[in-house]
């Protein structure tokens, strides 16, 4: 017994051709905004959480020495690097 093959066409009103997404011209493509690299001298934020008591102690220590918390952190880090090669 021979089987007949039935071909089903596209639904009515549909184009059988594959539709491609439009390609944007090169001048319309915007570069990613997250690729910015700061210069070594540019200031950026360094964020981390500490307890309120620790922050108060560090701030008091820096204030007593007429330093900012940033200056104190930089000096502490420099000292740590020099003593822990």
Give structural notes:
This protein has helices at residues 52-64, 69-83. It is an all-alpha fold. The chain has a domain at 50-85. The longest helix is centred in the C-terminal third of the chain and has 15 residues, at 69-83. The radius of gyration is 33 Å and the shape is elongated.
Protein traits:
85 residues; mainly alpha; 2 helices; elongated
Task: Tell me briefly what this model is.
With 85 residues, the chain is mainly α.
Please give the count of helices: 2
Number of E-type strands: 0
The rough form would be described as: elongated
How much strand?
under 5%
Q: Overall pLDDT, averaged?
A: 83
Order of helices and strands: HH
Rg, alpha carbons? 33 Å
Could you describe the largest sheet, including whether it forms a barrel?
A: none
Low-confidence stretches: none
State the distance separating the first and last CA atoms: 87 Å
By secondary-structure content and strand pairing, the structural class works out as mainly alpha
Give the helix level as a range of percent: 25-40%
Region (Disordered): 1-22
Organism: Xanthocytophaga flava
Protein name: Chromosome partitioning protein ParB
Write the layout of secondary structure elements.
Elements: H1 52-64, H2 69-83
Protein name: Chromosome partitioning protein ParB
Organism: Xanthocytophaga flava
Region (Disordered): 1-22
């Amino acid at each position: 017994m021979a089987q007949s093959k039935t071909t089903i066409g596209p639904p009515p009103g549909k184009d059988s051709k594959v539709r491609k997404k439009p390609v944007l011209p090169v001048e319309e493509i915007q570069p990613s905004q997250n690729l910015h690299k700061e210069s070594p001298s540019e200031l950026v934020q360094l964020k981390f959480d500490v307890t309120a008591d620790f922050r108060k102690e560090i701030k008091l220590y820096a204030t007593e020495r007429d330093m900012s918390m940033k200056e104190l952190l930089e000096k502490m880090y420099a000292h740590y690097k020099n003593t822990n090669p």
